[in-house]
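ok trying again, last paste got cut off:
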Amino acid sequence: MRRLLSSAAAAVILLAAGGASAAAPVATAGSKGATFATVTTQLPRNVRPSHYDLAFTPDADKLSFRARVKISIEVVEPTSTVTLQAADLTFDKAEIAGVGAAKVKVDEEAQTASFTFAKPLPKGKYVLSIDYAGKIYTQAAGLFALDYETETGKKRALYTQFENSDARRFIPSWDEPFYKATYSVEATIPTGQMALGNMPIASSKDIGGGKTVVRFATSPKMSTYLLFFGLGEFDRASVKAAGVDVGVVTKKGDTPKAEFALKSAAKILPWYNDYFGTPYPLPVLDNIAAPGQSQFFSAMENWGAIFYFEYAMLLDPKISTERDKQNVFTTVAHEMAHQWFGDLVTMAWWDDLWLNEGFASWMEGRATEHFHPEWNSALAAVGGREYAMSLDALQTTHPVVQHVETVEQASQAFDGITYQKGEAVIRMLEGYVGHDAWRDGVRAYMKQHAHGNTVSDDLWQAVETAAKKPIKAIAHDFTLQPGVPLITVDSATCAAGNTTLSLTQGEFSKDMPNKKPLLWRTPVTVKALGGGEAKTLVTGGKGSVTVQGCGPVVVNAGQNGYFRVQYGPERFSGIVANFAKLPSIDQLGVMSDAWSMGLAGYQPATDFLDLAKATPADADPQVLSKIAGVYSTIDAYYEGMPAERAAFRKLAIAKLRPLLAAVGWTAKAGEPDNIAILRANLIGTLGGLGDAEVAAEAIRRFNADKTDPSAIPGPLRKTILNVVARQADAATWDAIRAQAQAEKTPLVKSQLYMLLASTEDEALAKKALELALTSEPGETLSSNMISRVAGEFPDMTFDWAVANKDAVNAKVDSSSRTRFIPGLGSGSSNPAMADKIKAYAAANLAEGSRKEAEKAAASVLNRAKIRQDRLPAITAWVAKAG
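nice, full thing came through this time. structure:
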């Protein structure tokens, strides 16, 4: 699954809710794959499935379906009751041939259905037949419907979304990752529509009355959350790659917009086959684009039938940017990596979710570096690591491997620790053992556990064996305990042309300054400017390393390590003086450390401003974008302080405007791809900072667009319209709404409605919130509009959402309601908001489902602390700088 970060700065994911208490956790040490006897489960261990034969008929108009499933089961302990998971299903009958009918008991809270027979079932194999009915939802959970406009009227398509625990809304099942089984699926559909599944259609028969029965080929063994079905008026294009039918599926007329995704998938597949050492095992791999949005995910790795919302897969020349193009590639690479990490080899229970998501995040980076080195994606990985550290330095963090007891807790495990920290730890360990040894370990892991389930130590064992180098202890330090190591340079002594560093390992924390630090075995790479490179492993809190050269030394050179670095004033000054000479990735890493360490009080917050001042105008676009992003962050902290904000804006604009002048508003032939992203970032940032010149040019182009098609180039349309929308008056806001109402292309239509939620005018922001509660924007867009308003007005939006709780929750995936409203307030700097969030959680959320609310409250308190403790120094620096 490709997760999203909302505009309210809360990391949130679409997942399922509910569930009973779990059994004991899977052991995470010394395992060789999970076993039926030890794996965590919320179900009795006396029965397990091997095959599902499902036949169903969806009624898209009535938002319901009827179905019959025949489940091949094995009774491993005699029992008269078979219990499996089910949610929002109604049962007509259940029986086992030769045994008789069963009495059905549904537990809505536990999301289970129990089938009790007159006599105990002896050990053996049976077929349990169940006739039942269910709902088609309007948000992305279970079997759901998406409506969209076309030139010929409104259309409706159906799709499924089951991760983590929503297959139970479609098929009564053992809806847990360990219970793998094969699937045969038959659907009765409207004749003329296209049906999609994990496997190709094996047979199709027109039965008259406008109905056709399609039956898909039997799938390999897989977990329930990977099952997929889609239905609608689609087009498909495909190519052969490594013997696999690789396809893209879109609504009618849109396959040209999927051309880049198709070409990317066709290139990636044979490369992944080679890297993983195990060929992709299915005959087809479809990439399926759907109109609409989710609050919390953009794509899902259903085996052989990857689902994407359109904005994550399609490129429309009217509005798509270079950033969109890069995101399409990385999303395709991420979801395709899951076809191995997650689908072929699956974590035994949600404790080890990072085995899916951390690895897919890491692998997307590896694929991007291979196929698009011009994008310099290693720098993007630094940004992901920074996001993880921002969460990991708060007391509300958790280990990468965390025990999950309920489905709601599994839902909340899809966060920046699981994804970005998981990715960063893998990068560090790969760098420690070497690329070839790491790959050999991954290949062995795939071969050993194909079609099975694992825990983290299965991977560590495979890599250790391949690398002949111990990593398990290091891996445990970084995955079984939370937090961010802090490597401090205690001293640096130069002698005989070599520099010896004395290092201390502490712990970086934003809200626990007196916490006794944990200990990590930390791989550290150092490089002397103009000199050599050296590596060491800091253990027991102390370490030293000697490197050739006597210039300034960068610790964490290459930025593979998951830790912060503290140099001390003198050594940091040497880095500032030579900053332009550092490699781009180290410029970004040093900047990131300085900014985060400054906000937390480990060094002056103004150190970042010194680095920004020392950054040359021809620095890597991602480094310059980092400066623009931090300037935007500082500007937001000055909310309610007009004089101080005006002074800071003057300084920031003076730094950024020459950069925009250098790249210009118009793309140059042959320019690097990342320059296009920098251009958009600079225009957006300067517009947000109130730069009158940028605002005037954006408005001029907006007005000229009515008669001059070249006024707003497609790659800049989102950026220019966003600047206009932020500063819109009522007339402009109404004009954008009229465009949205008239637009027939879902990808463009959703963008226009999101612009309405981007205003800096509080009265118009309130109008956007009220509009979001209507059906006009579309059922799946409303919650994203609300989140976008919260990005500018977190306090107002949170209060409004609480006052309209039921109406707001109706626009949110039912399984994600525990995190949505608390997340709206997370961008506030008012300490009172933390209390409001906690009060909301106490009144509305189960005690075990408040983790995301706690994170949101911690974020608020941290922001308030920064305003109080760090802004005065920044204000003084700005005044001194003139």
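cool. The longest strand covers residues 47-59. Residues 6-31 have pLDDT under 50 and may be disordered.
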